[in-house]
């Protein structure tokens, strides 16, 4: 009988120890869980802020022309459907983003047919000061700007500079000499691009 009584005592002791462990676990879990939620809540705004800093751009496909739309900087433009587009977010202090578009499957960054560069105002103002250029007034989507026509390295270039909120935007085209020294200059496409350029207000 003593043996049976000691087995029951051991069994009761094991149950008490298990209940104590479960109770302690529940207590610890209830204390840790709110801290975890607070930490997640505190981290959420950081994630949202970093998502807001990421650029939002889309390509809207059309029949003859596609539309490039950049929500972050607030503009869009059309480019021929058989052209490619490349976007570079710059680590440069003066240049925020550059968009290149050229005929074919790879957009040229060296001599793009269409160039869009969002820059600080002082960069745009200083870039064209030293060039031998022809300048004229122009409007892009109702915003007044300056068009510069010049040659660089014997190749024609056109750049239109307009204000874009706290930045300026350079809308350009750069000619290129082919292997057989033929000039490839997309002036007609450039003016189509300027006519399609819209500010997202």
UniProtKB/TrEMBL annotation:
Name by which UniProt lists this protein: PsbP C-terminal domain-containing protein
Keywords assigned by UniProt, alphabetized: Membrane, Transmembrane, Transmembrane helix
Transmembrane segments: 7-29
Lineage: Bacteria, Candidatus Magasanikiibacteriota
Domain of life, per lineage: Bacteria
């Amino acid at each position: 009988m003593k043996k049976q009584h000691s087995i029951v005592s051991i069994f009761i002791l094991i149950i008490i120890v298990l209940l104590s462990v479960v109770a302690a676990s529940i207590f610890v879990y209830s204390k840790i869980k709110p801290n975890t939620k607070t930490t997640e809540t505190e981290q959420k705004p950081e994630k949202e802020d970093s998502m807001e800093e990421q650029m939002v751009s889309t390509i809207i496909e059309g029949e003859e022309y596609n539309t490039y739309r950049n929500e972050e900087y607030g503009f869009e433009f059309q480019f021929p459907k058989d052209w490619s587009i490349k976007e570079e977010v710059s680590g440069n202090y003066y240049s925020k983003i550059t968009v290149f578009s050229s005929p074919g499957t790879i957009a040229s960054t060296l001599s793009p047919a269409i160039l869009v560069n969002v820059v600080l105002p002082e960069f745009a103002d200083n870039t064209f000061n030293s060039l031998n250029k022809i300048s004229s007034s122009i409007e892009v989507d109702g915003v007044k700007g300056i068009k510069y026509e010049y040659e660089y390295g014997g190749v024609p270039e056109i750049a239109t500079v307009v204000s874009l909120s706290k930045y300026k935007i350079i809308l350009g085209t750069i000619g290129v000499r082919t292997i057989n020294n033929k000039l490839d200059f997309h002036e007609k496409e450039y003016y189509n691009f300027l006519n399609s350029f819209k500010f997202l207000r």
